[in-house]
């Protein structure tokens, strides 16, 4: 068997793949957080709950209406986005003039409500969710065995991240968004409907979380607490990357996922704290984060 | 970065400046009266209310008071205070059970341990401000959670069970309900008085200056980072005092006390009672613990109730109970 650094190559590559997949979710979620934070200046604590909501919506769609993975991939994120837009319009938008910490506290309460409700109905145990039949099975790449669905998740997350990045950096809507980030009053004065833009942004961020949730459903079990465990790691990812740039959030997400996977190979005991340790080191060396600007 | 209490509590920004001192004096006189009544009530309480419930409230009240020192008076929202509360509970439980320490020394071990953890976490966290500070403290406390989960002395999911209450200084038997109640009350009052003393000292006034305008405090020559770190360590130590006490009272130390939900609960207690007020957090703690007790036996999930109260507080009731009371009295 081929060995690398004293580790069998397939084991190493297997953990790398798992790391890459985890990294895909970190990237998708920290991207959504960064998009929301950029414009609303709100740290969306409910992001994990929205991710869980996406997965659960897919599960419930299959259970009650028989809609499978592919329709759910479109419908579930839209539903999460719509609910989130409603919450933003009716409640969150009242907090913009206050200290930003109130946005964090509000979304924290929201996360407790959503997760608590689902836990009440469905218990803490996970529900299995079958992935698409089209992507069942795997491919032998010669050096390792790649389950098709996992390969799809990696590709899909890269495509989604790139599209959002292009949307924000290259389109007119994205230009409004970036302008409103810099100076909302001025953009409003130019006749752009900034409150609408804020709602759309929150819906976009939440929808991304929902989409990540649907993608995650066949890999991890669908459980009410799947989001809250993830969101704190994503917060650390966001602190490491700094929320100054969309691209930075994406890159940091993938890199940390892979580093976490590698830690599982070389020092498994530390694998669930490695992201936090890296955060501590980054805070010591570059307090603003790797891609961040002090704000 | 505007402060949390400033934007939240002061409806008209100039009223805090105009009448500041005179109002503070009359309010502190009312505060003294309330304090005397409260202490008298607490001394009489175990004859009317189940002591273990009262002691739980006192532990959380001290925890919230310690947390408020940071949020209410320095404007720093730590989302990781459970690490100090629950960490100290583990240290104290281990000291009492495995090392056979008498209860007071075991509690001191817990508080000092929490203070040292606070020094490490605080030194990192104060490098970022505002919302990042909250995220950094949350992330670091999650790291501490995982360390406690894996460390052998905490016994993982089981926690440290059957912690002996022991004999205070080898003399007073704390297995007697009244003995331990007054012991807990004494520690609570000590911690509460410590926070009150810190807040009203020249040091505390610098902290409040940092809360109101950090940049101005820097330009006046204060080494803001040192003040923040000192406040963080004090807050962590007193939170640890509360957690260590809880371990002795309930005779158990578990992962629940270090989990992030606990960090959220203490935020809620402080917010509900009134952040930046001296009595608010204790009152908030009493309300939240009572609520949890009440709903624990009902069908309604406690998490959802906590979340709803959280959302309502943030949307409609940002001054909290005591904050609203003070506002009404000022009229």
TrEMBL record, chain A:
InterPro entries: ABC_transp_permease, BCAA_transport_permease. Keywords: Amino-acid transport, Cell membrane, Membrane, Transmembrane, Transmembrane helix, Transport. It is found in: Cell membrane. It is a multi-pass membrane protein. Its main location: membrane. The chain crosses the membrane at residues 12-35, 42-62, 68-88, 100-122, 151-168, 196-220, 232-259, 265-285. Pfam families: BPD_transp_2. Belongs to the binding-protein-dependent transport system permease family. LivHM subfamily. This is Branched-chain amino acid ABC transporter permease. It comes from Jiella pelagia.
Automatic annotation (TrEMBL), chain B:
It holds the Pfam family BPD_transp_2. The keyword Metal-binding does not apply. Keywords: Cell membrane, Membrane, Transmembrane, Transmembrane helix. The chain crosses the membrane at residues 31-64, 70-92, 104-125, 131-149, 180-199, 229-254, 266-288, 300-321. It is a multi-pass membrane protein. Residues 1-20 are annotated as: Disordered. CDD domains: TM_PBP1_LivM_like. It comes from the Bacteria. It is found in: Cell membrane. This is Branched-chain amino acid ABC transporter permease. It comes from Jiella pelagia.
């Amino acid at each position: 068997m081929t060995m690398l650094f004293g580790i069998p190559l397939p084991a190493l590559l297997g953990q790398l793949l798992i790391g890459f997949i985890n990294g895909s979710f970190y990237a998708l979620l920290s991207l959504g957080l960064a998009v929301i934070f950029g414009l609303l200046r709100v740290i969306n604590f409910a992001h994990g709950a929205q991710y869980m909501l996406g997965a659960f919506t897919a599960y419930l769609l299959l259970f009650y209406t028989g809609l499978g993975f592919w329709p759910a991939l479109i419908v579930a994120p839209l539903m999460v986005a719509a609910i989130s837009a409603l919450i933003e319009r009716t409640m969150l938008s009242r907090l913009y003039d206050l200290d930003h910490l109130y946005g964090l506290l509000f979304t924290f309460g929201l996360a407790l409500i959503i997760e608590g409700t689902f836990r009440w109905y469905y218990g803490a145990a996970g529900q299995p969710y079958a992935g698409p039949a089209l992507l069942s099975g795997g491919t032998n790449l010669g050096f390792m065995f790649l389950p098709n669905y996992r390969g799809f998740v990696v590709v899909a997350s890269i495509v989604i991240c790139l599209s959002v990045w292009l949307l924000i950096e290259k389109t007119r809507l994205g230009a409004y968004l970036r302008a409103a980030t810099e100076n909302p009053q001025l953009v409003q004065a130019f006749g752009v409907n900034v409150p609408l833009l804020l709602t759309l942004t929150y819906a976009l961020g939440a929808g991304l979380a929902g989409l990540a949730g649907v993608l995650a459903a066949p890999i991890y079990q669908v459980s009410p607490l799947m989001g809250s465990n993830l969101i704190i790691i994503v917060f650390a990812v966001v602190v490491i990357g700094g929320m100054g740039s969309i691209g930075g959030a994406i890159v940091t997400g993938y890199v940390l996922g892979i580093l976490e996977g590698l830690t599982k190979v070389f020092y498994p005991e530390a694998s669930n704290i490695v992201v936090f340790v890296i955060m501590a080191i980054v805070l010591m060396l570059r307090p603003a984060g790797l891609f961040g600007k002090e704000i | 970065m505007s402060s949390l209490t400033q934007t939240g509590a002061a409806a008209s920004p100039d009223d805090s400046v105009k009448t500041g001192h005179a109002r503070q004096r009359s309010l502190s006189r009312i505060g003294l009266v309330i304090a005397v009544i409260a202490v008298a009530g607490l001394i009489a309480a175990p004859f009317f209310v189940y002591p273990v419930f009262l002691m739980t409230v006192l532990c959380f009240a001290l925890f919230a008071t310690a947390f408020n020192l940071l949020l209410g008076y320095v404007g720093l929202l730590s989302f990781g205070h459970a690490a100090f509360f629950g960490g100290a509970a583990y240290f104290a439980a281990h000291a009492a059970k495995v090392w056979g320490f008498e209860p007071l020394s075991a509690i001191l071990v817990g508080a000092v341990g929490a203070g040292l953890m606070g020094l490490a976490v605080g030194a990192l966290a104060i490098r970022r401000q505002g919302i990042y500070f909250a995220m950094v403290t949350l992330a670091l406390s999650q790291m501490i959670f995982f360390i406690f989960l894996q460390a052998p002395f905490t016994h993982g999911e089981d926690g440290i069970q059957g912690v002996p209450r022991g004999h205070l200084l080898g003399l007073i038997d704390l297995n007697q309900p009244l003995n331990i109640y007054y012991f807990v009350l004494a520690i609570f009052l000590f911690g509460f008085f410590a926070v009150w003393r810190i807040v009203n000292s020249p040091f505390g006034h610098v902290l409040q200056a940092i809360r109101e305008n950090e940049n101005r405090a820097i330009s006046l020559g204060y080494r803001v980072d040192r003040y923040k770190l000192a406040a963080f360590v004090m807050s962590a130590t007193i939170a640890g005092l509360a957690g260590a006490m809880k371990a002795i009272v309930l005779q158990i130390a578990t992962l629940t006390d270090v989990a992030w939900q606990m960090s959220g609960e203490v935020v809620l207690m402080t917010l509900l009672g009134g952040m930046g007020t001296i009595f608010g957090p204790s009152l908030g703690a009493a309300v939240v613990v009572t609520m949890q007790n009440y709903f624990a036996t009902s069908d309604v999930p406690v998490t959802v109730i906590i979340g709803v109260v959280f959302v309502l507080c943030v949307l409609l009731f940002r001054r909290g109970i005591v904050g609203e009371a003070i506002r009404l009295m000022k009229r």
